[in-house]
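does this look right to u?? alpha-L-arabinofuranose version
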Amino acid sequence: MNRRILLLAATALSLGAGSMAFSQSLPSLEKKDRYKVGFAQMESNNPWRIAETKSFHDTAEMCNWDLIATDAAGSAAKQVADVDSMIAQGIDVLFLPPREEKPLIPAVKKAKAAGIPTFLVDRSVDPAAAKPGEDFVAFLGSDFIDQGRRVAEWTIENFKGEKGIIVQLEGTTGSSPANDRKSGFDDAIAKDDRFEIVASQTGDFARDLGRQVMETLLQAHPDVNIVYAHNDEMAIGAIQALELAGRKPGEDVLVVSIDGTRDALQAIIDGKMGVTVESSPFFGPLACEVMKRYVNGEEIEHWVQVQDRIFTQDNAADHIGEAY
Ligand code: AHR
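got this back:
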C-alpha cells in the first residue's frame, strides 16, 4: 500500500471512529411506559408561541408524556434557569426552542452532562459552539434562510413599481430566525437592482414593537413602498402604523412576511398583505415521532427539516380555517 492510500485509510478510520464517538456520546433514552418531558418555551406574547406550546400540551397524552412546560417570558436568562430546574426535576428528555443563538448553549451542554437527550425545536444555537449529534440530538425546524429567500423572490416577481424602497423589521436580535431570514432575503433581493433596503431594525418579533419601529422608520423614510417583516406579528403592527400615517397597505405599500398566522391570512384576504411564507408552530407530533425513533435506537438526522408552504391571495382563504 502506498503512502497516499495509507493516509486515506487512516483518515476514513478516524472519521468513522469520530462519528461513532459522537453518537455514543449522546445520552440514550430507555423504553418506558411514561416519560417526563421538558418543554422550555421562550415567551408567550404572540399567537405563534401560544400555538407551539399548545401543540406540545395536545401531544402529551397521546405520546405518554408527563409534560413540564415553562415560559421564560422573553428572557434568555430565565430560559436557562427553567432548563436548570427541569434538570433538577429529573426530566427524561428536553425539547428546547432557544430564544437566542448563544445564551442557551451552556444549558444545552448541562442537559447533556446530566444524561438528558436534548432536541432543539424551531430555533437553533450557534453551530460553532454546539453541534447536533454531539451536544444535542437534532434540530427540528424550518429552513429560515430559504424562508427569507422565498419572500424576496415573491417580491421580485410581484412588485409592480419601478423602484422598491424596503424597510425590514427584524426578529429578536441574536436569534437564528432573525439572522437567517435576514441573510436569505438580503442575498436574494440584492440580485435585482430595482430594490434598496433603506432601513433594517429589530421589532423583536412582537406586534407592538413592530408598530412602534414602523412609526419611527416612516418618519425617516416616508417614501417606503415595501415592508419585509421577519414574522406576521410585526407585519400586522407595521400595517397599523402605515394606516395611522394615512398610507394604504396593499395599494401604495407592499407588506410581505413569514409565519402564516390567522391575522396575516386575513390581511392577505383583505388585500393589505402580499405574501406570508409558512413557518409552522405545530411541533408536538413531530417531537413525539422523533423521540420514539430515538428510543428505538434509530439514527436521527441532525436536521429534521420542516417543509413550508406559501400563502397568497390564491390560497389564503382555503387555509384560514386551520390557522392559529
Ligand atoms: O422561531 C420562529 C419564530 O419565532 C416565528 O416566526 C415567530 O413568530 C416566533 O416568535
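The chain has two domains: 3-141+282-305, 144-279. idk if thats expected tbh
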